[in-house]
Write a structure and sequence with these properties.
Aminopeptidase; about 600 residues; 3 domains; metal-binding; OHCU_decarboxylase_sf; 2-oxo-4-hydroxy-4-carboxy-5-ureidoimidazoline decarboxylase activity; 5-stranded antiparallel sheet; OHCU_decarboxylase; Amidase_Cbmase; 9-stranded mixed sheet; UraD-like; alpha+beta
């Protein structure tokens, strides 16, 4: 018989602990402490409450929880001594059918891992879909995580334990994240389209207006039609636009969207998660026979990453009337002009057709965007969703420090004009100044000594600067401090320097009213609300120039890594993302009519 949340909330403590026996391996103390957090208004809230207990536990208790778990394909598994839950999980991953070579490799990894960390390797082997990882994927994760620092790996073990508990709770409650499964299935289908040579290597790469890019657009258009959008079209820049009509013809529109292009060797969820989640929300609305008191316009933006042409946000720029005509003459690495690429893809390639894409802000309520976080914050806090407060503004530079190249053996230390040493000081100055200003980040991502040699004091050093903050005043304060530090370093060392601006992007604070709507949607799911800034840029930054906007972040697994094949989202978190969007739409319906349409 499946568990039910209502009676679970009313059980005495020991009965509550008994009902959750086996959710966390041999650790009844977790359920016992979680009992004091009742009532839980949702299964998601129960999961988060249990994770909170573990996060607030002592280090010894956390290590005890980790050590309560068996090794993968270890002695306990061979001897048939695993719990029923662990037996099921390892069997779903096929670990009982390891080849001799796979079994030997796992034993070697188990020994090496135990010697390095002192606890067993923990992996949610049923994976992001709950169906089971392949043995090769398990071995690759094992090998990758062996190199992690102990504190990082301990936390990753705990996160995997929470994922194991989540899947066990789903089984115990008879809960299936159906909407999340649909989103992940759709992401997998889109990932079949990739450019050479990435496709041949099993990697994902979809850059602007390539054949795989056009194939993704066609698949998205078909998915929107099948989900029930009333109008679907691919516009003059390759944006895929779906419109769900309102319950009355004169109603305003809510704009939503994200991008479907990718970086090279990308993950499957950056950008696309928001598009696919919205498609599932619309499918659900149409299955319910519902119309909203406002129209819903979904734009799958064709370009956000700036991988093929140096015209980042070109598709969302057009919607706010900021498309630069000079972009049409930009050339890619093969010398193909943007205008010619547009025409080859079947678009007019004219400035007039692009300018016609501009939206009239008076027709729109605002813009909302769902997006994978692309960072570790939600992952570290064991939270599936987070409300974005602002999209960071940035200033970027390329620079060069000029000193004097000289012999490394004959030039005394106090006579050197070492450009690389000055750059090293600059790296530390950027770190120091950003740490001193909460909410700011600074990075020297590129360092190069042109023509450098092992026995030559560097006479030149090239570098990059990337300075970001959630508001322009903080960004500019960091910028001023870093530039002053660079000048001081070079003056003290007798060096020259140049600094060339390459990007100036204003911060895009999320509109308070729309932040509040996302917060209400998260609370409606029984989850706590956590607010955080976005360090990465998004299409919302451009739409911000014309409409109030707000974003909701969805937790990424694998420490929140993104722009990488390890980028991942669980079916449960994807499911919550769709449900959060539905809750926002329902809340907005209440605002407009006093009840859902």
């Amino acid at each position: 018989m499946n568990l039910d949340l209502h009676p679970l909330n009313t059980l005495d403590t020991e009965a509550f602990v008994a009902a959750l026996d086996g959710i966390y391996e041999h650790s009844p103390w977790i359920a016992r402490r979680a009992a004091a957090l009742r009532p839980f208004s949702s299964l998601a809230g129960l999961k988060q409450g249990l994770a909170r207990v573990v996060r607030e536990a002592s280090l010894d208790e956390q290590l005890g929880l980790i050590r309560a778990h068996p090794e993968l394909a270890g002695k306990a598994a061979v001897a048939g001594q695993l719990t029923a839950e662990s037996t099921d999980e390892q069997s779903r991953a096929g670990l009982q059918h390891c080849s001799p070579a796979e079994f030997e490799r796992l034993q070697v990894l188990n020994r090496a891992y135990g010697e390095r960390f002192g606890w067993p390797f923990i992996l949610a082997v049923r994976g992001p879909r709950g169906q089971g990882l392949s043995r090769q994927a398990i071995i690759e994760a094992f090998e990758r995580r062996l190199a992690a620092p102990p504190d990082v790996e301990r936390s990753e073990c705990l996160r995997n334990i929470h994922r194991i508990a989540e899947i066990r709770l789903n089984d115990r409650f008879g809960a299936e994240p159906r909407l999340g499964n649909a989103v992940l299935d759709a992401a997998d289908r889109l990932a079949r389209h990739s450019e050479p040579p990435f496709a041949e290597q099993g990697q994902l790469c979809v850059t602007y207006l390539t054949l795989p890019h056009q194939a993704v657009a066609q698949d998205l258009a078909l998915a929107m039609r099948e989900a029930g959008f009333d109008e679907v079209a691919i516009d003059a820049l390759g944006n895929v636009v779906g419109l769900l009509h309102a319950s009355r013809p004169d109603a305003p529109r809510l704009l939503t969207g994200s991008h479907y292009d990718t970086v090279r060797n990308a993950g499957r969820h950056d950008g696309r998660l928001g598009v696919l989640a919205t498609i599932e929300a619309v499918r659900q609305l149409r299955q319910e026979g519902r119309r909203l008191p406002f129209a819903l316009e979904l734009v799958a933006f064709s370009e956000e990453e700036g991988q093929r042409y140096a015209a980042t946000f070109l598709s969302s720029s057009a919607l706010v009337g900021r498309f630069d005509p000079a972009w049409l003459d930009q050339r890619d690495a093969d010398g193909i002009r943007l205008q010619d690429a547009l025409r080859a893809a079947g678009h007019p390639g004219t400035l007039g057709s692009i300018e016609a894409l501009r939206r009239d802000p008076a027709r729109y309520l605002g813009y909302v965007e769902l997006h994978i976080e692309q960072g570790p914050v939600l992952c570290e806090l064991d939270l599936p969703l987070g409300v974005v407060t602002s999209i960071n503004g940035s200033r970027r530079y390329t620079g060069e420090i000029l000193g004097l190249a000289s012999h490394a053996g004959t030039t005394p230390m106090d006579r050197r004009r070492d450009a690389a040493a000055a750059a090293a000081e600059l790296v530390l100055a950027v770190e120091r100044e950003a740490l001193a200003r909460p909410g700011t980040v600074g990075t020297v991502g590129l360092l190069e000594v042109p023509g450098g040699s092992i026995n030559v004091v560097p006479g030149r050093c090239r570098f990059s600067l990337d300075l970001r903050a959630g508001d322009d005043a903080a960004r500019d304060a960091l910028d001023g401090a870093v530039r002053a530090a660079l000048a001081s370093i070079c003056d003290r060392r007798g060096l020259q320097h140049t600094l060339t601006p390459t990007v100036v992007a204003s911060a895009a604070p999320c509109a308070p009213a729309w932040q509040a709507r996302w917060a209400s949607a998260v609370e409606a799911l029984g989850l706590p609300v956590h607010r955080l800034p976005s360090g990465a840029g998004h299409d919302a930054m451009k739409i911000h120039e014309a409409l109030p906007q707000a974003m909701l972040f969805v937790r990424g697994g694998n420490l929140g890594i993104s722009h990488n094949p390890l980028e991942t989202v669980s079916n449960d978190d994807a499911d919550l993302a769709v449900r959060a969007l539905r809750a926002l739409l329902d809340g907005l319906s209440h605002e407009h009519e006093g009840h859902p349409a």
